[in-house]
Amino acid sequence: MKALYIASTGMSAQERNVEVISNNIANMRTTGYKRQRAEFQDLLYQQITRAGSQTSDQGTMLPAGLEIGSGVRTVSTPRVMSQGNVNMTERELDVAIRGEGFFMVTMPDGRTGYTRDGSFERSAEGTLVNSSGYAIEPNITIPGTATSVSISADGVVEAYLNNDTNPTELGQLQLARFVNKSGLESLGDNLFTETAASGPAQVELPNRDGTGNLLQNYLEMANVNSVTEIADLIAAQRAYEMNARIISGADTMMQATSQLR
């Protein structure tokens, strides 16, 4: 009985949906996290009678056909790249992006990673790094004698050195944009890499061409809404239960058939 297999695809799809929702909820406090959503497609159909088939020698046709579907599958889990709330941290090396851009970091294998997490630190050499110790691109070094480090909305990094009365410019932060942000590959550690689907990174200065401006002493929070996630979780649970009921109903029908004499 096909109903058993069709309902099983529904249960499998909703199980994957719950996994996506649980990951969103688990990352509610992850800096710069972008929520995912599960998207589904129906499977192939068995054409028993095709719409438009002739039903007589006079040329009359069926106005609608008879098709039996095969169920559903999870086709993708794209990220929702909407802006998250920005919270004050009072740390001078915390920076939030208000716009579409991504910070760039140099990963250990030499590739460039992209992140919305602006919780920066200083390495032992004074290099500006992310929370995993990866250097920010372009490289910016803050001397040990630097005080009152400031990062402007345009990404200019300045600090007072020694007893100087005027700040010294230490470097310029840059941001990357993508035509299709949802096509980025997730690496974990708040990092993404570009793919053929995302298109190449378009590197710009902050405040230009939609990259967004920077906000020092703030961090962007995850764009996860707890109420929405719980509502989606309840809907997924109910869909799972209904598919389970279909399997139970199909089993009852098969049992009744097997008891015929």
From TrEMBL:
Alphabetized SUPFAM superfamilies for the sequence: Flagellar hook protein flgE
Boundaries of every Flagellar basal-body/hook protein C-terminal domain copy: 216-260
Domain Flagellar basal body rod protein N-terminal: 4-34
PROSITE patterns per UniProt: FLAGELLA_BB_ROD
Keyword Cytoplasm carried by entry: no
Subcellular location: Bacterial flagellum basal body
Major place of residence: other
Keywords carried by this UniProt record: Bacterial flagellum, Cell projection, Cilium, Flagellum
Domain Flagellar hook protein FlgE/F/G-like D1: 96-159
Signal peptide from the UniProt entry: none
Family: Belongs to the flagella basal body rod proteins family.
NCBIfam families according to UniProt: FlgEFG_subfam, flgG_G_neg
The protein's assembly and partners: The basal body constitutes a major portion of the flagellar organelle and consists of four rings (L,P,S, and M) mounted on a central rod. The rod consists of about 26 subunits of FlgG in the distal portion, and FlgB, FlgC and FlgF are thought to build up the proximal portion of the rod with about 6 subunits each.
Name the record gives this protein: Flagellar basal-body rod protein FlgG
Gene name of this polypeptide: flgG
